[in-house]
Specification:
Length: 390
């Protein structure tokens, strides 16, 4: 069967919308323009029902209560609201523990807080791309210390796909009464997530990483008594418990809900299918090429992720040679920044090794034919590039 090109293998940057999600988006956009804050008529009520339904669907994917879901414009806004909102509720700068594996939408708000006097600890990763738990524990102090305001750790790393030990981190935090936030944009919907067993107080998720539309996401905020010390970053309107005011993006939210429903419904089969395709691609490359290595953990990894190092080549040279494949050299959010990926360097790779690395992201719509085609093209291009070398 002929493969339609270009082949999309960059599902960590974004995913195509699922046709069922697109249908919801279009239907709501067309038929339901009401404002869910309009209490007095059926246009408002219809919109309210759509949002309520989506809130249930999103909550269900996380094992949360629907009242704990705050809709945002995406995971970037959710991360900013979590970090800056917790900081804003504190009368004086405190201490936040995070990692060297974070997405820029966590690391940059943390840089900002650091400039404002906060003590920010970035726990390093080991060679496999897993956060060093002992270092985190040491920084948390004893169960009697109450020095730390918040721990924020990415759930699934967006370049190397490593799944961080959230349950263990959650336990360390819970034992000390420390708030725990996770950026789960790459994890939620792709692997099982449960906010209770993971001890999570705050979770950020994004619709467009799970076959939903762009520009919508959510922050899960655990309901506690008293409420979590979280301040809004913008004001006016009182929507979303006053934490995220502004008229809700009803079509986007309804479609996001549908994306969550589908993700939960099909997760086990989908994980198995994508993992099998991912392993097939990796084995083809490994069998046919010397000098290929996997960056990150072989086991604690997103099913659709590969991050591969091809010795002796530069990915910036390789990518144009395989232009029929949509691949990336790293985080889409960093692609404007020069220099090797900080995440790859944090695994202990040299700058040269980091520059020889390519990220491949398989997804719901990736086929076996596409995987075989990708393997063939990558092998041919790497062999040729190596031959051209003086
Ligand atoms: C994509 C991504 C984000 C940003 O999500 P948006 O909805 O695009 O703002 C944040 N964190 C991680 C890990 C991501 O992969």
């Amino acid at each position: 069967m002929a493969v339609r090109t270009p082949v999309y293998l960059d599902n960590h940057a974004t995913t195509p919308m699922d046709p069922a999600v697109l249908e919801v988006l279009q239907r709501v956009q067309k038929d339901h323009f009401g404002n869910p804050a309009s209490e007095g008529h059926s246009f408002g009520w219809a919109a309210q029902t759509l949002v309520k339904n989506a809130r249930h669907q999103v909550a269900q994917l996380l094992g949360a209560d629907p009242r704990e879901i705050i809709f945002t414009s995406g995971a970037t806004e959710a991360n900013n609201l979590a970090l800056l909102g917790i900081a804003a509720a504190s009368t004086k700068p405190g201490k936040i523990i995070s990692s060297t594996l974070e997405h820029s939408s966590v690391s940059e708000p943390l840089d900002h807080l650091e400039q404002r006097g906060w003590d920010v600890v970035r726990v390093p990763s080991d060679q496999d791309g897993l956060l060093q738990l002992e270092v985190l524990e040491k920084n948390l102090g004893s169960v009697h210390d109450h020095q730390v305001s918040l721990v924020s750790v990415i759930a699934a790393q967006n370049e190397i796909g490593t799944l961080q030990p959230l349950e263990k981190i959650g336990k360390l935090c819970r034992d000390r009464g420390v708030l725990f936030h996770s950026d789960a944009a790459q994890a939620c919907g792709h692997v099982a997530m449960d906010v209770t067993s993971m001890g999570l107080d705050l979770v950020s998720i994004s619709s467009h990483k799970i076959y939903g539309p762009k520009g919508v996401g959510a922050l899960m905020v655990k309901r506690t008594h008293p409420p979590l010390p979280l301040q809004p970053l913008s004001f006016g309107g009182g929507q979303e418990n006053g934490l995220r005011p502004g008229t809700l993006n009803v079509p986007g939210i309804a479609a996001f809900g549908e994306a969550c429903r589908l993700a939960l419904e099909n997760r086990d089969q989908e994980v198995a299918r994508i993992r099998q395709l991912r392993d097939r691609l990796w084995h083809r490359l490994e069998e046919q090429l010397p000098g290929v290595d996997l960056n990150g953990s072989a086991h604690s990894r997103l099913p659709g992720n590969l991050n591969i190092r091809f010795d002796g080549i530069r990915s910036a040279q390789l990518l144009p040679r395989v232009a029929v494949l949509a691949l990336s050299t790293g985080s889409a959010c960093r692609s404007a920044e020069p220099g090797p990926s900080p995440v790859l360097l944090s695994l202990g790779l040299t700058a040269q090794q980091a520059a020889a690395s390519v990220r491949i992201g398989l997804g719901r719509f990736t086929t076996e034919e596409e995987v075989d085609f990708a393997a063939e093209r990558l092998v041919a291009a790497v062999v040729k590039l190596r031959q051209e070398k003086p």
